[in-house]
């Protein structure tokens, strides 16, 4: 892996504007803690990684790779470490309607970098893992574990690619994010009442300027029943950012876009909140997100994917669904 100074030079040459002062190690440590809260506690190892592709199955077929996982615990956020609790206090204070409008305007006004999907994976690899000499797996290995679990279960090729890229939005941390609170963590709508099924509940938003706002925190707020989640602002972070990057530059189906956008929207896909905002499309997309969720939570294992052996297969997948090799980030 290239040293940090070499990475900065290559980023400048490619037109990328990275904030090299960000603490990638701290972001990844927090992200791992959040994953631990959301995941069912696994006991036992996942199946060995196989590079062969089985006969394709429906995306809605039950996942097989995680059958040996013990799923007796789920979202134990009341006993989470202080780092997670402090993170959510900050996130719930700062994710306002005003900030979300600003973040979207900034996204539309700026191209942060131009690079291929695989190059983006390598950048994330360097930015995060170069800062942590004790890390066991690189970011690319984590991404490949998710994609390979989907591939072993015979799910569609577009879903395999979705598993590969679904966390690439973490690059936002090194562009114009304000901190960790607008990159990772559970997501939720802004502009309507804060629901008690959001992690740590409605009371955790008391310091948010939108809390008790006569419009933004009143029922459906700026929305109306059945408006559809496509028309709802979800709290800005790595999934919302990547969704906006991918939806206009790939041929991935709506189900893949939903997996990317909603995989951290736990109040919705796990707790049943915000159903009144849904339309018929959202009900179909909910099934897809639930089908994807196990591969997001349980694909990490001790088995190391062989990156260079797998790279040609996944670069072919990328080319299949991204018409332009170089895309705007």
List the helices and strands and how they pair.
Blueprint: H1 4-13, H2 24-38, H3 82-94, H4 97-109, E1 114-115, H5 117-129, H6 139-152, H7 157-165, H8 238-247, H9 254-262, H10 266-269, H11 280-297, H12 307-321, E2 327-328
Antiparallel strand pairs: 1-2
The rough form would be described as globular
What's the domain count? 1
Query: In order across it, which strands form the biggest sheet?
Result: 1-2
Identify low-pLDDT runs: 1-15, 40-52, 129-135
Largest sheet: 2 strands, antiparallel
Overall description:
The structure is a single chain. This protein is mostly helical and 329 residues long. The chain has twelve helices and two strands, in the order ααααβααααααααβ. A two-stranded antiparallel sheet has the order 1-2. Helix 6 packs antiparallel against helix 7 (157-165), helix 7 runs parallel beside helix 9 and helix 9 crosses helix 11 (280-297). The radius of gyration is 19 Å and the shape is globular. Mean pLDDT is 84; it is low at 1-15, 40-52 and 129-135.
List the main descriptive attributes of the protein structure presented here.
two-stranded antiparallel ribbon; inositol oxygenase activity; globular; 329 residues; oxidoreductase; 12 helices; Inositol oxygenase; mainly alpha
What is this structure, in a nutshell?
This protein is 43% helix and 1% strand.
